Amino acid sequence: MGCRCDSNACGSCACSKANELCTPQCHGGQSIDNVPCMNTEAGKKVKTMKIKDVRTALIANGLSIIGDRGELYKRLADQIRKSGASNSTSNESGSTSASGKSNEGDAKNELFKIILENEDNYPFILSLSGKKIQANSGKAELRKAYLLLSSKVHPDKNPGNQEAVKAFQALLSAYERLANPEKFADEDDEDEKPAKKRQKTERFTRSNGGCFKTKVKCPQCKTEWGLPVVGLEDCAYNFIMTGLKQYICHVCSCQFGCMTALHYCPHCRKEFSYDPDDYHRKITCGNIKCNKEFGFWMFKVSERREKEVRQEAKELHESRLKKAAQKKRRAQRAGNRDAGEDGASKQRLQEQLFLLQLRDSCPRCGWELERGEGHDEAQQHLTECNDKVKIREYQQEVADEEAEARSKLDAKASEEEILALKQWESNGRQLGQLWMLSDTMLKRQCETFNLPIKGKRHELIQRLSQHIRSQARLMITDGKTDVSGGASGYDACSLKHADAEDLPQNLNSLDKEQLQDLCASYGVKFNPRKDVKKDLIKKFEMTRYKGTEQQLMLGYGEEKNKRRAAIKDKDEDYVPDE
Q1: What pLDDT, on the 0 to 100 scale, is given for residue 294?
Q2: Closest Cα to residue 314, out of 151, 153, 428?
Q3: Where does the record place the region Disordered (predicted)?
Q4: Beta strand 293-296 with 211-212: parallel, antiparallel or unpaired?
Q5: Tell me, what's the pLDDT at 550?
Q6: d(CA 352, CA 363)
Q7: How far is it, in rounded angstroms, from Cα 53 to Cα 93?
Q8: Partners of residue 491 on adjacent β-strands
């Protein structure tokens, strides 16, 4: 019986088992182009290549790189077989071929050309990364495709190449337009309308057509979140999905938000990557077998309740910033104490703690003391603890645990950054609250306006605040200024007109660095070298109440004169006893 692998790539067919190549007589006489056979001379060479080299070779030959792994390998194998140039592909494992390092530059130039030729086809540009991207793909999928492609076209990877600069700008534009379509919704409007100023507490409403309350699970114990037995309000789904609030799992007490939670497609029940910016969009499931579109349900919530949640989120974030500052100061003090210690000194300290039974396990190999054992057993173990294999394995285990702990801390920090950003956006992007954003978010805001991102935190905030306020003034004065960064979307309220709820609850609880950031947010002038905490608070309050001191003094003076007049009248009416 002949080879008949009509639906699967040849791997277990008769020809492959006999270590022979398939011939035109195989597959029931069907053309090799119509079956997924890879048991050919070209197929065997392609199968040894890495997937990134396959994509590079496809681009160099002007072929599409959209599809799964098997489709890409088959497409390249057919191209090699048809052209008769099987030596035109490269294998990064060390095999020499015509499209190796010598043609790598040509492949990149071809990629630049394809991107620039399709500059307005944003899904196609991101699909060149090898991932199938649509206009309504989730932001997480868009980010993955952007990062894959930017590693090839970034100007830093292609120094001196102007085509790379243009291609990267086109790639960045494609990502921004697909990830944040609302920013460009009115760009092509024929009527020139002034941009609407964003209100402090923006109320957003939309329909729920094609939307679902997607399943959300705890990242630690995989328990479904939001079950009726927990007693959460319906609008809690709004708050967690927009990144405004974190919740605690009712089973394992793990605190999580939308960035660390597990999200599942309402159609195929498979896990998908979620970003808070997707909440008011309809996205496509990343599962190839599903590929269905869905949105996220928006429950009705009163304006009062929404305001309460915003205020709770702001106060909670303030407390987190204070704790982070305290932790940073403690770490600095500990670092100063440990500055003169080396690794050997720390190891001796841990061994001494083990001997004093202040540590349960051996710092070398991880051996643990049994109940009832004491100093003598610990001393004997340290004397005999010379097994290099066990010591190396334990040290590797400790290093892995530390790496996992750092990864969890990074995920938590990323979650808190998103929470801070969403809380800031929900309050109208107030410039006075820039001090509450993380370093990463501040740099992203600066990049939006093409501002330098080097310098200390208060310098970044000052630079960003001054730029947006100046642009906002230009828009008011001439009405024609083109603000590419969208300064009209920010609340540039001055410190004198700021509400009490927008300011920190207690200025004295902030440290010097936080007060510098706060002053920079509201444009309060200060000397970062000379001004101490007391000076910063005084300058902030003087700016806050500037212009009202005279009114207060006048009011106090009038009241004082009235009291004096009343006392004088009483004295005049007094008649002494004769």
Answers
A1: 93
A2: 428
A3: 83-105, 183-202, 313-346
A4: parallel
A5: 45
A6: 10
A7: 10
A8: 430
Residues 120, 170: Cα–Cα separation, whole Å: 8
Beta bridge partners of 293: 284
Q: At the top level of CATH, which class does the domain 118-185 belong to?
A: mainly alpha
Query: Between helices 51-60 and 104-117, what is the axis angle to 10°?
Result: 70
Residue 61 and residue 371: Cα distance in Å, rounded?
Answer: 70
Q: What are phi and psi of 163, to 5 degrees?
A: -65, -35
The DSSP result for 115-135, as a single string, is HHHTTT-HHHHHHTTSS---T
Token couple for 352: 């001494």
Q: In the numeric block, which tokens belong to residue 394?
A: 């334990």
Residue 312 DSSP one-character state = H
Report the pLDDT value the prediction gives residue 198, as an integer from 0 to 100.
41
DSSP letters for 217-255: E-TTT-PBSS-GGGT--TTHHHHHHTTS--EE-TTT--E
Contact by Cβ (8 Å): 249, 221 = yes
Number of Cβ within 10 Å of residue 330's Cβ equals 10
Q: Tokens 């500052």 appear where? A: 325
Residues of the chain with pLDDT under 50: 1, 85-102, 186-199, 475-485, 550-554, 578
Provide the token pair at 82. 């048809």
Contact 146, 171 (CB under 8 A): yes
**CB 540, CB 524: distance < 8 Å:** yes
- Report the DSSP beta bridge partners of residue 215: 264
Chain segment 226-275, per-residue pLDDT in tens: 998 889 999 999 999 988 888 999 999 988 888 889 999 999 999 998 98
How far is Cα 300 from Cα 205, in angstroms, rounded to an integer? 9
412 CB-near residues (< 8 Å, 6+ apart): 260
d(C-alpha 44, C-alpha 40), whole Å: 6
Handedness of CA 25, 29, 30, 31 (dihedral sign): positive
Is 272 within 8 Å of 287 (Cβ atoms)? Answer: yes
| Residue ranges matching CATH 1.10.287.110 in the chain | 118-185
Task: Using DSSP, state whether 368 is helix, strand or coil.
Answer: strand
